[in-house]
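Q: I have 335 residues here and want to know how they pack in 3D. Can you give me a structure?
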Amino acid sequence: MSQEFTRGATLKDVAEKAAVSISTASRLLDDRHASKTTETARRVREAAALLGYRRDYAASSLRRTGTSTIGVLVPRLSDAVMGIFYEEIARECERRDLSALVATTGDDPHRLRLAAQSLLSRKVDGLVLTTARTDDDFIAELRSAGVPHVLALRTDGISPSATTDDELGGYLAIRHLADLGHRRVGIVAGPTYASSATMRLAGARRGMLESGLDIDEELFAGNGFSVEAGEEAAGRLLGLPRPPTALFAFTDHSAIGAMTAAARRGLNTPGDVSIVGYNDIPLARHLPTSLSSVRVSLDLIAQGAVRLLLDAEEGSRVFPPTMIPRQSSARIRPV
């Protein structure tokens, strides 16, 4: 981590004494939150007073200079989910007379650090990141440096986050297909570094177990969220000697890729293979065969992320998903 992120050990001492995260201590010691009278705020201020802590604005890359701007980090804006999410963040910021700056990372750890440093150099008031990876320690570096931040759509289980209940979402998708009579369901999975993908997989496995579905490791394929990744993984699954009668794809984009793979094999959706996606992007309902999908409340997640970042709220926010059946999933044909 670059030295520009360093706040010094005293803020960490305050956070430890007050039993809060470093980012929470930083927010509550900001002059803009001087009117906060919660028990947490009182505890943080008392700890700062007892330790003789004085906020060093000159040493901080996040010193308040009236920018009233937050930085938003997303893998790519060409992804409909990320584009919609950023628009919701910008809408919530506008409601608060704030601005939002976005930077893309390509889901690459090196580009993530460069993008974050670029935003922080513009003295944003904090970061909203949809880019948390379980195989990278960048979020831990932000915590250690006391950089105000909130995770969104993904989580590391430590930093404040606003997400959907992805485990429940995966479970709902499988139960929907099981209720339609499908016993052999293929999983078009996502990248293992994304908590959203691992939780959807955990929920899918739970749904399979409870529904008595085949849990065959050959039915699990894929490691990406894109249309191309979905088409490749679905092609492998549909080419099995005993192909699945239904597919659950971890994003709507990969579900669209799965529909393409089915069509290339001369299969009809849902006549030959039912398909369920995830996120319920606007395109899902407008496809020639409308896509069944697990709806994620991107507006609520965006609002929750901004509140966690700017209102010094603690903990995390988890919003429930909803299964939306459409034409792409249907009752299995009798043999």
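Q: Anything worth noting?
A: The chain has eleven helices and twelve strands. The domain at 166-296 is CATH 3.40.50.2300 (Rossmann fold).
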